[in-house]
Design goal:
- The structure holds two protein chains of two kinds.
- By secondary structure, chain A is of the alpha+beta class.
- Chain A has helices spanning about 10-35, 40, 65-80, 165-170, 175-205, 205-230, 285-300, 335-350, 415-420, 530-540, 545-550, 555-565; strands at about 45-50, 55-60, 90-95, 110-115, 120-130, 155, 160, 235-240, 250-260, 265, 310-315, 365-375, 380-385, 425-430, 445-450, 455-460, 485, 495, 500, 505-510, 515.
- In chain A, about 30% of the residues lie in helices and about 25% in strands.
- In chain A, strands 2-1-5-4-3-6-7 form a seven-stranded antiparallel β-sheet, sandwiched between helices. In chain A, strands 12, 13, 16, 19 and 20 form a five-stranded antiparallel β-sheet that branches. Chain A has a five-stranded antiparallel β-sheet with strand order 14-15-21-17-18, covered by helices on one side.
- In chain A, a hairpin with a 2-residue loop joins β9 (about 250-260) and β10 (about 265).
- In chain A, α1 packs antiparallel against α5 and α5 (about 175-205) packs across α6.
- Chain A starts with 9 loop residues before the first helix and ends with a helix.
- Chain B is α+β, with helices and mostly antiparallel strands.
- Chain B has five domains: about 5-75 and about 220-240 and about 245-260, ATPase, nucleotide binding domain (Nucleotidyltransferase, domain 5, 2-Layer Sandwich), CATH 3.30.420; about 80-215, no CATH class; about 265-330 and about 425-480, 2-Layer Sandwich (Nucleotidyltransferase, domain 5); about 335-420, no CATH class; about 485-600, 2-Layer Sandwich (Dna Ligase, domain 1).
- The chains are: A alpha+beta, B alpha+beta.
- At the A-B interface, α1, α5, α6, α7 and α9 of A face α3, α12 and α16 of B.
Chain lengths: ~575, ~675
């Protein structure tokens, strides 16, 4: 193993690194506990991080990977906009814009605050909440339709909220009561983070703290490079078709990964130009996505800080769907992000067959309703993103019914949902035969079926993988496609193949239902090689059907009957 | 006739027994090997042994309580019962989907915990209740009958019943329960409205299933124990500790086994509170460091902090419990070097077998215990008061192998391991203190467990804590805690009520109803009325928030004055927890709670005469070289058995006793108090 002279002893680095991580986690937890909106308090669609004075990430709490994109850009945006002399103790900055504030989409509003120690700016804390606001605003062909664009501007000055700025923002929000509650929680989380980092500096002294942080970043880079070295040198390429709610045509996504010694380059040259819909990823979104993908393959426990990024090079031509420029719309960028992670795994499959996974659910499936809540007379916006199947792994099945890759938000408990909104959940269950057959089966997708109880609401479901199923690996078969079903009280059923919403919002009246089925993951290895007892177990538990047991896995009809009779 | 009380802590390796003789005012201790196949064996054998040694006839036992990890281990090791689940049609997979999050954000090889009920035994019935308790679809009894027939055929040992909104209107769950009871007499039943009448369906469902999963095994174990005690002639009512720190009868525990999942560590917290209260301290951080794990918790004004939810073996369990934070680091934790060249310690542990390298049982890797031997903090020849021989050479060799990888000398590597392990402990203490809004510098650290007093000197210095209390028997404090806990249970009802227009009478009725239930339970526990106590509290939040803060409430008629008190207390707690509070913003009451307890007569204070600051000659065993503050220091070693009240020992010093070793750093001063605790004060902490 390589040995480097430590500027600071390895024990202090470990101790300070852990301390910073626990501060970020503590901030994130405080935000969830004090927040007002369902999307933050129950679905935990939020993150927190700590940065040095140059804006480099020192720690990010393990919440939602795509949020790293917004956090990566935000401290930098503040530093660029305001000279140091204009940043004061007690200030906080708010921002969300994809082009002016480093954000990845407008609902993710970041609040950043400088950390001062004995009068000196030593870094920043930031936290992000996905504010489920800015809904019902048309087609989303460009970013102005997607909500209020906030550059990184001062929301708090020397400890006092700038009421004029806050009022302006709230006036542009559709649910200002939720927003103000959530903002308060975000301010409080930052205050907590600042206090904790100051305490660390008190204990170690600022100079020692700075030196330790430098070493922490170097350590992370060393560890990252050690991980990258394990990938055989070579050039690896992969491609996949992105289908979406917006276009009939497919968008071809490509990657070429070059690995040489301890460097890795991910080149997305050849991806389509940016599109007039929210599928575009801006620069920090593609970075966060590549960092995530590589991390899952080389060393999942590498500390999430800027040292990690030094060993990864990303090439993404400007003006394309993977590095869009103003005024591209970005709302649904995670649909594309999810595919990019799968691309990275697909490309490196020949190099790291034991670590890669087959394609996951591959979408950030969204369903929701908005309108007037008949119980309160107030406007509401219910939104939820649905998990699905994990791609199968080299020695294991994929996980059933979970959030994959760039997101990890919780569901909204049914009892919370029904207590708040005029909606009734009819079904929430795993789907038979959704996991791609293989020696190792892809994880199962699920269906969530919601009925409208009263009023007239707009509703929709944004999906991907409605047409192109998640691919399998090494002989494994694809998982199922996503499906959307609208049921009307007169018995009519609509099945839009690319979802509803975005450009085709639907109206729901009392008794109408919306059922969204997410994809299962792709399989891994030849299904004929699957352990017979596992096939029978899946059959017994209804995870696969009689048809699949025979056709995909080669069980004889007699064997199938044996299992099913026992079951009856 | 004598009157003796027995407290027993069943651990993974040893079962510790404490006996207190009320007449003579004497304590006795004993340690026997645990019998994991049937834990009741070691309990009864140990009890009989200690009685025999102290010449106490079995019929003189008037109190018998034990803490046990039987439930915890059954859950973690997947050794529970075959369970069937009956649930609302369309929702059988809720148990697997959970909150739809994956178990590790970046490590794609990590699995979700195996569902405790197979998919084919999760049966759906047609029924539906609305969020406000209205029945939308009546229960299809024929579906229940079909489900029961199926579960009978499969021979399940327990049935869990959980319907959506069952916490709001339990009617369908009650009907189902009645059918199952009739059709499957004797089967273990776990019903959501009884186990956890709170909203959030997944957490309620999972807790109900965990209860069913542990129920049959725990019932067997508890019945077994009761019968064995009876046979042995110990006829007083036996108790078990719950996760909330209170004790309940074995019958109550068998009905609600989910409440005993953290039975083990709670005894230590109760013991620590008791010992410290005697010594005059009420604000404590308990630090229980054993061989493979460390438990920390916070006690505020004599009250252990409580929580309502934690994950065990990956399964969320919601039940009132002491807020014990556990980390996988202890004396047996192994030191290693990661890919980036940093030193890590744990969570891998050498366990009891092979154990640390110095045990000479084949362990090759350097453990925390080995590091302590290398720096001279632990006796280089034996541990456990001479019961176990060790080999210091093996410890040095193991640490040397690690040091090579770090490019450090052996002693620096050993010291480094201790620094890393202490850093992990610091992080754990911060979780239960600063993260909850409590400043550890205001608290006394209670240091116990076999490895606690060896590391607490460093820990308190890192945390800037001035005072540490090391109890007389640090390694046996959990068992001692069982002699001093109260009979206790919690009763609760979720009823969301806005504070500005709350019906105060109705709130009064909810509390009256809860206290009625509590009285019925205390009747069953045979507690006379004059020894009953009730503590009310309410979980509340700002309207719009979903996480509540618990606020205590005076036990009197609920009026406007009570409401004002509640609000004031809420603002204060919110400010303490989150750093802000907005007065006047709408708030709501969510869950009403009553804690019922009966105060058990405690072990009286055993006060000793003061003997002056100088320890007796025979207490000073030897001087040993210990590596402290970057150099070898000649350090006196004392035998704790010979120390007397008011003796003062200045650090650096090592104090040895059978169940633990205490290390005082330079600048730390230990004073033996009249209860034989050592109170350590640190002059280097301001």
């Amino acid at each position: 193993m390589e040995r480097t002279a430590f500027k600071v002893d390895p024990v202090t680095v470990e101790v300070v690194g852990n301390a910073l991580l626990s501060v970020a986690e503590e901030m994130g937890e405080a935000l969830v506990k004090a927040a007002y909106s369902d999307n933050i308090k129950e679905r935990r669609d939020s993150s927190a991080g700590i940065f040095d004075a140059q804006g480099r990430t020192l720690a990010q709490a393990a919440h939602i990977p795509i949020h790293l994109g917004s956090l990566l850009g935000v401290a930098e945006a503040v530093v660029q906009r305001y000279p140091r002399s204009e940043i004061h103790e007690g200030d906080m900055f708010i921002g969300n814009d994809a082009y002016e504030a480093g954000g990845t989409h407008l609902p993710d509003i970041v609040v950043t605050a400088p950390i001062f120690h004995k009068g000196v700016l030593i870094g920043f804390v930031a936290n992000l909440g996905h504010h489920a606001d800015f809904f019902d605003r048309g087609e989303g062909r460009h970013i102005w339709q997607e909500g209020l664009r906030i550059p990184a501007i001062r929301i708090m000055e020397r400890g006092k909220v700038r009421q004029d700025v806050l009022d302006f923002i709230l006036l542009n929000c559709q649910l200002p009561k939720e927003r103000i509650g959530d903002f308060r929680a975000q301010f409080a989380a930052n205050r907590l983070g600042i206090r904790r980092v100051q305490e660390l500096c008190d204990r170690y002294g600022v100079q020692q703290f700075f030196a330790t942080v430098e070493e922490l970043l170097d350590y992370t880079e060393r560890r990252m490079r050690a991980g990258i070295r394990q990938i055989p040198d070579g050039v690896y390429a992969f491609q996949d078709d992105l289908d979406s709610e917006y276009f009939e045509t497919l968008l071809k996504l490509v990657v070429k990964i070059t690995k040489e010694k301890e460097d890795i380059t991910l080149d997305f040259t050849g991806c389509p130009p940016q599109v007039p819909a929210g599928l575009n990823m801006q620069w920090t979104a593609i970075l966060a996505t590549c960092y995530y993908g590589v991390k899952t393959l080389v060393d999942p426990d590498i500390p999430p800080n800027a040292g990690f990024y030094r060993a990864i090079r990303v090439i993404a031509p400007k003006g394309t769907i993977v590095n869009c420029v103003e005024p591209a719309a970005v709302y649904s960028r995670t649909q594309t992000c999810q595919r990019v992670v799968d691309l990275i795994h697909g490309a490196l499959a020949p190099a790291l067959p034991q670590r890669v996974t087959a394609a996951h659910n591959g979408a950030n499936t969204r369903m929701g309703f908005h309108g007037i809540n008949g119980r309160t007379g107030e406007r509401f916006n219910y939104i939820e993103t649905l998990g699905g199947g994990f791609g199968a792994r080299a020695t294991k099945d994929g996980l059933d019914g979970v959030q994959v890759h760039m997101t990890n938000t919780s569901n909204l408990p049914i009892e919370a949902l029904e207590s708040t909104y005029p909606l009734l959940v009819k079904r929430y269950e795993l789907v038979t035969d959704s996991g791609g057959p293989g020696k190792w089966r892809g994880g199962m997708g699920f269906v969530r079926h919601i009925e409208v109880l009263e009023g007239e609401l707009d509703g929709g479901a944004g999906i991907s993988r409605g047409v192109v199923p998640p691919w399998g690996l090494f002989g494994g078969k694809p998982g199922s496609t996503q499906q959307v079903e609208i049921t009307r009280t007169d018995g009519a059923v609509e099945r839009p193949p690319r979802g509803v919403g975005g450009r085709r919002p639907a109206t729901f009246r009392s008794g109408d239902g919306l059922a969204v089925t997410t994809s299962g993951g792709g399989g891994y290895g030849d299904p004929g090689q699957r352990d017979r007892w596992r096939v029978k177990q899946d059959l017994k538990e209804g995870r696969i059907s009689r048809r699949s047991a025979i056709e995909d896995y080669g069980l004889t009809p007699e064997e199938v009957d044996g299992v099913l009779t026992e079951e009856k | 006739m004598q009157r003796v009380r027995i407290g027993i802590d069943v651990g993974g390796t040893f079962t510790d027994i404490f006996l207190f003789d009320e007449v003579l005012g004497q304590l006795a201790v004993q340690k026997v090997p645990s019998t994991p196949q049937d834990p009741s064996q070691a309990i009864v054998d140990g009890a009989l042994l200690i009685l025999q040694e102290n010449r106490v006839p079995v019929q003189d036992v008037v109190y018998f309580a034990h803490g046990s990890t039987v439930a915890t281990n059954a859950l973690i090791q997947h050794k529970g019962a075959k369970v069937g689940l009956i649930t609302t049609s369309g929702f059988r997979d809720l148990l697997e989907i959970g909150r739809q999050v994956r178990p590790h954000l970046y490590d794609l090889q990590v699995d979700k915990p195996e569902p405790l009920v197979g998919r084919d035994l999760r049966l759906e019935v047609r029924e539906r209740t609305s969020y406000d308790g209205r029945v939308l679809l009546p229960l299809a009894q024929e579906d229940v009958l079909a489900a029961v027939a199926r579960l009978k055929r499969d021979g399940v040992e327990a049935v869990a019943i959980c319907y959506l909104h069952g916490y709001r209107n339990p009617d369908h769950e009650q009907q189902t329960k009645a059918i199952v009871q009739k059709e499957m007499p004797g089967v273990y039943l776990s019903v959501s409205y009884e186990v956890l009448p709170e909203f959030r369906e997944f957490e309620r469902l999972n807790t109900t299933v965990v209860n069913a999963y542990l129920g049959p095994g725990m019932s067997r174990y508890l019945h077994n124990l009761a019968a064995k005690l009876q046979d042995a002639g110990i006829c007083c009512k036996p108790y078990i500790t719950q996760s909330n720190g209170g004790i309940i009868s074995l019958e109550s525990a068998a009905q609600n086994t989910a409440r005993t999942v953290l039975s083990g560590p709670s005894g230590g917290v109760m013991g620590a509170s008791y010992v410290c209260n005697q010594a005059g301290f009420q604000d404590l951080i308990t630090f229980d460091m054993g061989g493979t794990s460390t438990d920390v918790s916070l006690v505020n004004k004599g009250q252990a902090m409580m929580t309502t939810q934690r994950e065990l073996g990956g399964y969320p369990v919601k039940t009132p419990m002491i807020d014990v934070h556990s980390i996988g680091a202890g004396g047996g934790s192994i030191g290693w070097v990661d890919l980036g060249g940093l030193l890590k310690v744990g969570p891998q542990s050498a366990g009891a077998d092979p154990g640390p390298a110095c045990y000479n049982r084949g362990g090759q890797e350097a453990t925390v215990t080995d590091a302590n031997v290398v720096i001279g903090a632990l006796n280089p020849e034996y541990l456990l008061g001479g019961r176990m021989k060790i080999d210091a050479k093996l410890a040095r060799e193991a640490v040397h192998r690690l040091a090579l990888k770090l490019d450090l000398d052996d002693v620096a590597a050993a010291q480094g391991m201790l620094s890393v392990v202490v850093a992990n402990m610091v992080r754990a203490v911060r979780v239960i203190s600063v993260q909850r809004g409590y400043d550890p510098r205001r608290y006394v650290l209670v240091s116990f467990g076999g490895a606690g007093p060896l590391h607490s000197g460093w820990l308190t210095r890192e945390l800037n804590m001035q005072r540490t209390l090391v109890p007389q028997r640090p390694g046996l404090l959990c068992a001692f805690g069982l002699l001093v806990t109260d009979v206790r249970s919690d009763f609760l009802q979720t009823r969301i009520t806005q504070t500005h227009n709350a019906d105060l009478h109705q709130i009064g009725d909810v509390y009256a109803q809860l206290e009625r239930q509590a009285h019925e339970w205390l009747d069953r526990e045979s507690i006379p009325p004059e020894r009953r106590l009730f503590h009310r509290s309410v979980d509340m939040r700002y309207v719009g928030q979903n996480y509540e803060l618990s606020v205590p409430l005076p036990s009197e008629a609920f009026d406007q004055h009570s409401m004002d008190t509640v609000l004031r207390e809420f603002y204060r707690t919110h400010d303490q927890t989150y750093g802000y509070a907005v007065e006047g913003e709408p708030t709501e009451l969510v869950t009403f709670r009553v804690e019922a307890l009966s105060v058990v007569q405690k072990v009286p204070s055993l006060s000793h005469l003061e003997a002056g600051p100088k320890p007796p000659k025979q207490a000073h065993l030897e001087d040993r070289q210990v590596y402290l503050d970057g150099g070898w220091t000649r350090t006196p070693v004392y035998d704790r058995a010979h120390l007397l009240p008011s003796n003062v020992i200045n650090g650096p010093a090592v104090i040895e006793q059978m169940d633990a070793t205490t290390l005082l750093l330079p600048g730390q001063r230990g004073t033996v108090d009249r209860f034989m605790n050592i109170l350590v004060e640190d002059s280097l902490v301001q």
